[in-house]
Amino acid sequence: MSGNVYDELKERGFVAQVSDEGAVRKMVGGKPITFYVGFDSTATSLHAGSLVPIMAMIHLRRAGHRAIGVVGGGTTMVGDPSGKTEMRQMLDEETIRAQGRTLHIQLARYLRFDGTGAIAVDNADWLLPLNYIQFLRDIGRHFSVNRMLATEAYKLRLEKGLSFIEFNYQLLQAYDYLTLFREYGCTLQMGGDDQWGNILAGVDLIRRIEGATVEALTFPLLTTASGAKMGKTAQGAVWLDAGQFSPYDFYQYWVNCDDRDAGRFLRLFTLLPLEEVKLLEALKDSEINEAKRVLAFEATKITHGEKAAEEARAASAAAFGGKVVSVQGNAGGKVDVIGDVTVLPTTAIARTRLESGISPAELFTEVGLTPSRREAKRLIEQGGLYVNEERINSLERLLTIKDVGSDGLLLKAGKKKIHRVVIG
What we know:
Number of helices: 19
Number of domains: 3
Helix content: 40-55%
Strand content: 15-25%
CATH class of the largest domain: Alpha Beta
Largest sheet: 6 strands, mixed
Mean pLDDT: 87
Strand order of the largest sheet: 1-6-5-2-3-4
CATH superfamily of the largest domain: HUPs
Oligomer: single chain
Distance between the termini: 51 Å
């Protein structure tokens, strides 16, 4: 990578706030430093919104800096109030530990924890053994309640009620930074922009206790051009775990993004050179679809691997009428072959259900293409539901065993949502 990695992060859109821009630029443009990002163990998988910090870590890792991926087994026991209007659900320690292990496995796919260029740690290792009274004496005395209440994270929660346990979160996150500074020489903490107050608290704590200067950088909290939260769909979160959100669905999430988001997402969620990204950004009208296909392939490759990305691209082309590859024909010429539909999201149903007939509204809702039967019926009336590329024109239409082809039943809602049903 040529140039200063800070300039690349900024041009790609990763920088929201920074403690001292000149100092951070000089820091990451020189000899290797150690930086960290924390991920609380609140679920069994990270989601697409988590890719913003992960991709920033990849860029810094590629520039030769050492990454620390911190799973928050300790902080999750308390619950981060940042960006939340209500208190998070309290999880038991066993669940938090188990979820933390899965998150470390996920992070390893991106960061390659080798003990030198990237390190994996769990803050439960130093937070859970703390003596509370000693912690208050050593750490708590450096915090001003007035200053804490002025931060956005706490101001938002004060309107609906902030529990005392959550009020401790900022102290614990600051103590994380202090611990990582002492143990690993970590001098840069990064996180979402809602973490700005918490990260600065760590910067201040290190200055007060160690007399050292460390830095902070936050990423923008992304929404799509339509205003939706990044990484959310009508069906829920876009999980990074293939078992919870298939590579095909992951690919479709990106390829179906708003045209206005394509360039921004190419900068953030791919490793393509900026020169190539700018060429794709310049595409207009229907040509922007090519930029979105590149985005979808590159983003899927980073998260699920090149083979899964190729399969998802082929399945998408097959589902929506694209020709994906040419092979040698019997007569010696080249023949276009449609992609493999077996990698489409698939549900198996009993033969007896199709033998007796099943309403499209029931089946489309069951496989998740429509949120309710009422919505499915509305789409039928508007001509928006298809089976095997045939529009369903009547509410009285039943799907039967006669509709099952060699590829099963191909159900399509609108132009972009498709699901395959087979007999199981």
